[in-house]
Amino acid sequence: MAFGIKCKDITEWKRKIDNGEIAFITHYWLDDRFPGCDTVTKVGCKNMRQLAEWGARHGLKQEWIHNRKDGYSHYDLLGEKQREILKKEGIVNKLIRM
What we know:
Layout lengths: L1 E2 L3 H12 L4 E7 L9 E6 L3 H10 L16 E4 L1 H10 L4 H4 L2
Antiparallel strand pairs: 1-2, 2-3, 3-4
Organism: Peribacillus huizhouensis
Protein name: YneQ
């Protein structure tokens, strides 16, 4: 279940993806399959090769990309890996604001 996300944040995330950027959006999220995780960061890009290369730099496998027909394919970052990657990307404040 996703919550704590604003429509303007989703619109901005999609705009960046549409412009060919690597885009990040973090929101609260609860799923019994992932105990202890209460946020998720979606990292998307329209260019699948660029997204896969970005993921590989962070130790993520290409097959982990949530491939969406609507053009908003993305990785889902959770838990310690989420914190690690956001810190490396210099955007750990996305978690602090949550």
